[in-house]
Amino acid sequence: MASVASPVIFKEFCPLYYLLNAIPTKVQKGFRSIVVYLTALDTNGDYIAVGSSIGMLYLYCRHLNQMKKYNFEGKCESITFVKLLSCFDDLVAVGTASGRVAVFQLVSSLPGRNKQLRRFDVAGIHKSSITALAWSPNGMKLFSGDDKGKIVYSALDLDQGICNSSLVLEEPSSIVQLDYNQKVLLVSTLQRTVLFYTEEKSVKQVGTQPRK
């Protein structure tokens, strides 16, 4: 007689109240009280990054139990995607609802690491909401995708403080996921998945049938 599988029970093992309590539920803008919504999340062994509807990035350091805040200058707009990377320096990329992309190079207390917070901007290419971000393992390349199907490649020189960006691919539907490894960018859209070979600048579709 076949045994009956026991039902799967989902359980929240560790409510992150220490994290949530460090993020305000409302902020004051002039005479208005604005509710803060949490809109994006990424984690690694060192940090928990949380994007918000007020354009503020909340970055929690897991080793020091400290919360830091980073924001964009100018218009207050919702953060739609965040992506952390730990390489020689700790980096976090942030995308917004209007298509702004920024990279924050974080301060480290370790010898030989970055001692001053720096920000790099991917300017003027995306015009719509950022839906995906992907790093190369060494932090020298960042790929960003938006809901109009544009994919932008940004080359970062952290030593010189330079970020050069260019449009590398346009898909007919929204980008939903990006992943990069060894000169190949995996691109998933609402309609299909392709492999983009960054050296040859060629595209190979995964599968033959479009998504419905």
Automatic annotation (TrEMBL):
InterPro entries assigned to the protein according to its UniProt record, in alphabetical order: WD40/YVTN_repeat-like_dom_sf, WD40_repeat_dom_sf, WD40_rpt
Cited SUPFAM superfamilies: WD40 repeat-like
Gene Ontology biological process terms from the UniProt entry: protein exit from endoplasmic reticulum
Coiled coil residues, start to end: none
Gene Ontology CC annotations of this record: cytoplasm
Pfam families, A to Z: WD40
PANTHER family: RUBY-EYE2-LIKE PROTEIN, TECTONIN BETA-PROPELLER REPEAT-CONTAINING PROTEIN 2
The protein's name: TCPR2 protein
Native species: Asarcornis scutulata
Lineage, highest ranks first: Eukaryota, Metazoa, Chordata, Craniata, Vertebrata
